[in-house]
Amino acid sequence: MLRDQPVDAFVPAFVADLRAGRFDDELAYRKAVRKAVADYTRTTPPHVKAARKAGVVTRGLVHYVMTKAGPEPLGRTTAPFDYEHYVTQQLRPLADAVLRFVPGPDFDDLIGARKQLSLFPDRRDV
To answer: Measured on CA atoms in the order 103, 107, 109, 110, is the torsion positive or negative?
Structure first.
């Protein structure tokens, strides 16, 4: 699963590769619009926003990516990819599910994203 690499080396390298754009071809979401786009009035899910930007008005399958400007149709982006969206919404949940069974640091520690100090300091800090 981790390509025969230690977790503490694999995870930061994978996140760095993602942020460097090496996986751009694999970041598209695919979601069905189940009713006419105009019928989405109460809420507007990301795939419907992308469908509207693509000019889709009926039901169908929408391929989109998350950018700094929000969801945009695949191949018609006007803003840079929002890599942090993919790190927090896709990688973190998957990594947390796997890393809980692997001794060592959690996902945030591995990628250097720890922002909040622990309520219970390490005994070495006392």
So the answer is: positive
Question: The domain at 25-113 falls in which architecture?
Answer: Orthogonal Bundle (1.10)
Confirm whether pTM is higher than 0.85: no
C-beta separation of 87 from 111 below 8 A:
yes
Tell me the pLDDT of the chain (126 aa) as tens digits: 555 667 788 889 999 999 999 999 999 999 999 999 999 988 899 999 999 999 988 888 999 999 999 999 999 999 999 999 999 999 999 988 888 887 788 888 888 876 665 566 554 444
CA 53 to CA 27: how far, in whole Å? 18
Q: How far apart are CA 29 and CA 15, in angstroms?
A: 18
